[in-house]
Design a protein that fits this description.
heterotrimer, A alpha+beta, B alpha+beta, C alpha+beta, B: alpha+beta, Aldehyde Oxidoreductase, domain 4, 2 domains, four-stranded mixed β-sheet, 13 strands, about 30% helix, about 25% strand, elongated, C: alpha+beta, Aldehyde Oxidoreductase, domain 3, five-stranded mixed β-sheet, 13 helices, 17 strands, about 25% helix
Chain lengths: ~160, ~350, ~425
C-alpha cells in the first residue's frame, strides 16, 4: 500500500492505495467517478481518457501511485455550477452522442486539444481524437461538435 | 503510384423478423400525476436513438411536447414486450404500436371527457397540449391534470399492439412475402489506391438513404456516418485472424476498427417517400446504412486498379498481391461433393 | 401533412446524462456487499471434458463455483436451444462456458479459474464450412453439420441462361467479424424488494432475457426482472444470452448481489460474430443488359451454435439477387456448423454479405456488355410494382432510382465512362 496525494476535479485527496491498482480503478472504485470507462484495458480505445496535469492519459495504463501529486480532471469536473462546459453542450447540440460509452473520453480529448490549439482544422481535430475509438457515430458528428465547441468557447471568451 | 477509381453499390433490405413469424410490438400509455403521459414500451435504446425517435412519434399523435411525456423502456416488470432492438424494426414496429396506443388513449380521454363535461357525444372533442376541449365551444374543456386528480395516478390507460404483415415462404420454392417494409439505398465512393503499399484511401462519398420519412434527420445522419464507418472497417481491415477456431486478434491493438483518421466526411442524402403502413411513413434504417458501402469500395478498387478482390477484407497485402500478379484475388473453386448432391 | 415533432432534429433525451458521465452502464453499478463472478471458458475447440473444481473451492474468498450440475435446465438459444449454460460433456468452440466462479473479489475469482482442472479429451475439429458439409467430417452436433437450407426456385433457370448474351460466374468470400461495441459485457444481479431475481444488464431485448433466464432456472417469468441499463453499443452482439443466466443462478442460490465485468478479450470470445459466407454466383443478362437469370449458392459458417443462423442465411438468400428484377432465380443458402466462434446477428444480418457478390457481378456484367455501372443498374433495379425473387410485389415506397440518381449526380460517373472510351 502507498500513500498518495492528488487533486481530482479541484478537490484534494489523501489516499492509501494498493500498488497494483490503476488510476482508472482508483477513480471508479474508490472515488465513485464512473464517467471514465474501461473499453479495452490496454490503452487502445481511449474510453478511460482523463486529463492529468494538462495532458490526456489513458487512465487504464497509469498506476494509481503514479498520479501522486498530480492534478486530474475527469468528465465529472467539467460541469460548473449546474452549467455544462461548452464542449459538452456542443456534443449535445450537433448529435455527437449515440451509445455514449466513448463520450466522456472523447470530450476529454477534445478539451485537451482545444486547450492547446484554440482553432484546429478538421484534420487536426481528427488527429486529436484518433486515440479514442467510437463504434457508433463514424466520428463525423464528433468532429462537428469539436468545431462548434470552438465557436462556443470563443463566444464565452468575448 | 496512386490510382483513383469510383464505385457504386446499391441495396435493398427487408425489415423485421420476417417469414411469417409474428413480429409483435406492444405499447401502453398511462396518465400520471402532474398530467404527464407515460409511454411504456420494451424498446431498447442501444445508442441508435430509440428513446428520442419513438418519443417524437408519441408526441406528434398526442399533440404534446416531448417534455410532457415519460418514456419507460428499461424494466421488464413495468413495460410490455415490444420485441428486440434489432432487424431495424423498432421505428416501424414499435413506432406503429405507440401510434396505435396513443390513438386508443386519445379515444379513451375523449370518452371520459364527454362524461366529465356532460356532453351528448364525443363529436368535436380535441386533444391538444394537455387538454381536451370542444373545438366549437372552447369553454367546454378539461385538462389532463384535472382528469388525473379525479381518477388517480396511472388509472387512465390504453394499449396498442402492432404486428407486421409477412407471409412464410414455401420450403421448396422460397415463394412468399418474407419481410415488410423494404428499405433502399445507394452509395458512391471515390478512392485512391497506393500501388506500392496497397493502401486504400477514401476521397469522396455520396450516400443516399431511403428513410420513408425521417423522424429525426440528425439521428438518421448519425446512423449513416456510423454505418459507413463500420462497413469501411469490414471492407478494408477488420479481421479476427481465426486459426483453428481461435480468435488471434482478440483486442483492439490487433483487431483494428476505424479511427477518426480513417473516416472522411460523408455526403448524406435523405430520400423521403413515406411508407403507408409506417408511423408517419418512417422506415428503419439502422442496418441498411451499412449495406451498400463495402461493395461500392470494392467496385471502386477495381475501377482504380483493374483487379477484383473477391475475398474480404481488402488488406494492403491482398491488394498488392493482386496488383502484382494482375490476377483477381480470392477466387477459388468451390466444387465439393457435398454440393453436388 | 403538417407535423410538429416528427421530422425535427430533437435533442436526444439521453444526451445530457451521456455527456456528463452520469449515464450508468452495468460496469458503473456498485452494490454494498456484492460478490464478483468470473467465467471459466473452454480452451479447446472440440473436446469431451471432465471438470474438477475441488481445489479451487478451497481458496479463501471463494463462495461457490457453478457448473452444469447447478442449472435446472441447461439449454438455451434464440432459435434452437443448442447452447448449454455450462458445457456438461462436450465443448464445441474455444470460449464455451464451463463454470462460473463467485468470490469476494475479482482477484480471488481469477486465482480460482486457474485452479479448476479441466481434462480435455480432444476431438478432431472442423473449421472450414465446405469441409463441414461433407458427411464424413466430424459432427459438431449430433444432428449433422448442415443446420439449415433455404431455397428459391423461380422461373426456368436453364432457359434464362440459354437466352443470356453474357454470363458471369464468380465465387466470393466474406469473413467473420466482431461487433466491437465499446462497452464490454457486464451485469449486476440482486434480489429486489419484492423478492424477484433482478439482473441489471445491457441487452437488446430484455423480455427475451427474462424468458430465457426463467426457463433455465425453472421459475415463472414474473419472478425474474431484467433492468436494461444504458447500452454501450450492440449491433446484434447483445441478442444471445451471455452472462444473464450466470448472474441469475448466482443470486438465486447465494442471495447476495453479484457483479460480472468481461474484459475486452473475453468479450471477443463471449458473443456472436458476423457469419462468414462463401457465395458462388452465376448471373446472366441479354445484350441490352437486362438480367435474365441468377444461380447462387451461399454457405454461411454459423460456427459452433445456431444462434440466428437460420434467419441470417434465409435473409441472405432472399437478398442475394440484389435490388433487381430477375425472372429466373435459383438460390441455395446453407447454414453450417463448425468449431469456429458461433455466428449470429450483426448489423445487416446476412444482407451485408451478399452485395459483396451481387454488386460486383453487376459491374463485371456491365463491363462484358460494354455498359457503364449506372446504366445496368438503372434498367434492372426495383421500382414501384416490381416483383422480388420470392414473388413479393413492392407496392409502395421504392425510391431506389432516386437514391442512385442523387449519388451519381454529384460524382460524375457518366463523364468518366465517356473518358474511358
Amino acid at each position: 500500500m502507498k500513500d498518495i496525494k492528488l487533486n481530482v476535479n479541484g478537490k484534494d485527496y489523501t489516499l492509501n492505495v494498493d500498488e497494483n491498482i490503476k488510476l482508472l480503478g482508483l477513480l471508479r472504485d474508490e472515488l465513485g467517478l464512473t464517467g471514465a470507462k474501461e473499453g479495452c484495458g490496454e490503452g487502445e480505445c481511449g474510453a478511460c481518457t482523463v486529463i492529468m496535469d494538462g495532458e490526456t492519459v489513458n487512465s487504464c495504463l497509469v498506476m494509481a501511485f503514479q498520479a501522486d501529486g498530480s492534478n486530474i480532471l475527469t468528465i465529472e469536473g467539467l460541469e460548473q455550477n449546474g452549467e455544462l462546459h461548452p464542449i459538452q453542450q456542443a456534443f449535445i447540440d450537433v448529435g455527437a452522442v449515440q451509445c455514449g460509452y466513448c463520450t466522456p473520453g472523447m470530450i476529454m480529448s477534445v478539451k485537451a486539444l482545444l486547450d492547446k490549439n484554440t482553432n484546429p482544422t478538421r484534420e487536426e481535430i481528427r488527429e486529436g481524437i484518433s486515440g479514442n475509438l467510437c463504434r457508433c457515430t463514424g466520428y463525423n458528428k464528433i468532429v462537428d461538435a469539436a468545431e462548434l465547441s470552438i465557436k462556443y468557447l470563443e463566444e464565452g471568451r468575448r | 503510384m496512386k490510382k483513383r477509381g469510383k464505385g457504386i453499390g446499391i441495396s435493398f433490405y427487408g425489415t423485421g423478423y420476417g417469414n411469417g413469424f409474428p413480429d409483435v410490438s406492444k405499447a401502453k400509455l398511462r396518465l400520471h400525476d402532474n398530467g404527464k403521459i407515460g409511454i411504456y414500451v420494451g424498446a431498447t435504446e442501444v445508442g441508435q436513438g430509440a428513446k428520442t425517435a419513438l418519443l417524437q412519434i408519441g408526441a406528434e399523435i398526442l399533440n404534446l411536447s416531448t417534455e410532457n411525456l415519460l418514456f419507460i423502456s428499461e424494466d421488464t416488470s413495468l413495460m410490455p414486450d415490444s420485441g428486440t432492438a434489432a432487424a431495424s424494426r423498432q421505428t416501424y414496429n414499435t413506432g406503429n404500436a405507440i401510434k396505435i396506443a396513443c390513438e386508443n388513449f386519445k379515444d379513451k380521454l375523449i370518452e371520459i371527457s364527454k362524461e366529465e363535461l356532460g356532453l351528448n357525444s364525443t363529436h368535436g372533442l380535441m386533444v391538444e397540449k394537455g387538454e381536451i376541449y370542444l373545438e366549437f365551444f372552447l369553454q367546454k374543456r378539461i385538462s389532463f391534470k384535472e382528469l388525473v386528480n379525479k381518477y388517480g395516478d396511472g388509472t387512465i390507460e390504453a394499449e396498442g399492439e402492432f404486428i407486421a404483415q409477412t407471409v412464410e415462404m414455401d420450403p421448396e420454392t422460397g415463394q412468399g412475402a418474407p419481410y415488410w417494409p423494404y428499405t433502399f439505398n445507394a452509395c458512391g465512393v471515390e478512392l485512391e489506391v497506393d500501388t506500392l503499399t496497397g493502401r486504400v484511401e477514401i476521397l469522396n462519398v455520396r450516400f443516399a438513404q431511403d428513410v420513408g420519412r425521417a423522424v429525426n434527420p440528425r439521428l438518421v445522419e448519425g446512423q449513416m456516418d456510423g454505418g459507413f464507418a463500420m462497413a469501411l472497417g469490414y471492407a478494408l481491415f477488420e479481421d479476427l485472424n481465426l486459426v483453428k477456431g481461435q480468435i488471434k486478434s482478440n483486442k483492439f491493438s490487433r483487431y483494428l476498427i476505424p479511427t477518426a483518421m480513417d473516416m472522411i466526411d460523408v455526403e448524406k442524402i435523405l430520400i423521403e417517400d413515406p411508407e403507408p403502413t409506417a408511423p408517419y411513413g418512417a422506415k428503419g434504417i439502422g442496418e441498411p446504412v451499412m449495406i451498400p458501402v463495402a461493395p461500392a469500395i470494392l467496385n471502386a478498387i477495381y475501377d482504380a486498379t483493374g483487379v477484383r478482390i473477391l475475398e474480404l477484407p481488402v488488406t494492403p497485402e491482398r491488394l498488392r498481391k493482386a496488383m502484382d500478379t494482375k490476377k483477381n484475388e480470392g477466387n477459388f473453386n468451390m466444387e465439393l461433393n457435398a454440393l453436388k448432391r | 401533412m403538417r407535423l410538429d415533432v416528427v421530422g425535427k432534429n430533437l435533442i436526444r433525451v439521453d444526451a445530457y446524462s451521456k455527456v456528463t458521465g452520469k449515464a450508468l452502464y452495468p460496469q458503473d453499478i456498485y452494490i454494498d456487499g456484492m460478490a464478483y463472478g468470473k467465467t471459466l471458458r473452454s480452451e479447446k475447440p472440440h473436446a469431451y471434458i471432465k471438470v474438477d473444481t475441488r481445489e479451487a473451492e478451497k481458496l479463501e474468498g471463494i463462495i461457490k463455483i457453478f457448473t452444469y450440475k447447478d442449472v435446472p435446465k441447461n439449454s438455451h438459444g434464440v432459435v434452437f436451444k443448442d447452447h448449454e449454460v455450462f458445457c456438461e460433456k462436450k465443448v464445441r468452440r474455444i470460449g464455451d462456458p464451463i463454470a462460473f466462479v463467485v468470490g469476494e473479489s475479482e482477484r480471488v475469482c481469477e486465482l480460482a479459474l486457474k485452479k479448476i482442472v479441466v481434462h480435455y479429451d480432444e476431438l478432431e475439429g472442423v473449421f472450414d464450412p465446405l469441409l463441414a458439409m461433407d458427411e464424413n467430417s466430424p459432427k459438431v452436433h449430433e444432428s449433422g453439420n448442415i443446420m439449415y437450407h433455404y431455397k428459391i426456385r423461380k422461373g426456368n433457370i436453364k432457359e434464362g441462361f440459354k437466352n443470356s448474351h453474357a454470363i458471369v460466374e464468380n465465387t466470393y468470400k466474406t469473413h467473420m467479424v466482431d461487433h466491437a461495441f465499446l462497452q464490454p459485457e457486464a451485469g449486476v444481479s440482486f434480489i429486489d424488494d419484492k423478492g424477484r431475481i433482478t439482473i441489471m444488464v445491457a441487452t437488446q431485448y430484455p423480455h427475451y432475457d427474462r424468458e430465457e433466464v426463467a426457463a433455465n432456472l425453472n421459475l415463472p417469468q414474473d419472478q425474474i426482472r431484467i433492468i436494461n441499463t444504458n447500452v454501450g453499443g450492440a449491433f446484434g452482439g447483445r441478442e444471445d444470452i451471455s452472462l444473464q443466466t450466470h448472474l441469475a443462478l448466482a443470486v438465486y442460490t447465494l442471495k447476495i448481489p453479484v457483479k460480472v465485468i468481461y474484459s475486452r478479450e473475453e468479450s471477443f470470445i463471449a458473443h456472436s460474430k458476423r457469419h462468414s459466407m462463401i457465395m458462388k454466383c452465376k448471373t446472366g443478362a441479354d445484350k441490352d443488359g437486362k438480367l435474365l437469370a441468377m444461380k447462387a449458392v451461399i454457405i454461411g459458417d454459423t460456427g459452433a451454435y445456431a444462434s440466428w443462423g437460420t434467419n441470417v442465411l434465409r435473409k441472405a438468400g432472399v437478398h442475394i439477387t440484389g435490388p433487381y428484377y430477375i425472372p429466373n432465380v435459383v438460390v441455395d443458402s446453407y447454414a453450417v456448423y463448425t468449431n469456429n466462434p458461433f455466428a449470429g446477428a450483426m448489423r445487416g444480418f446476412g444482407v451485408t454479405q451478399v452485395p459483396i457478390a451481387h454488386e460486383q457481378q453487376m459491374d463485371i456484367l456491365a463491363e462484358e456488355l460494354g455498359m457503364d455501372p449506372v446504366s445496368i443498374r438503372m434498367i434492372n433495379m426495383f421500382g414501384k410494382g416490381s416483383v422480388t425473387a420470392t414473388g413479393q410485389v413492392l407496392t409502395e415506397s421504392v425510391p431506389l432510382e432516386e437514391c442512385l440518381e442523387k449519388v451519381v449526380e454529384g460524382m460524375d460517373f457518366y463523364h468518366r465512362e465517356e473518358e474511358a472510351k
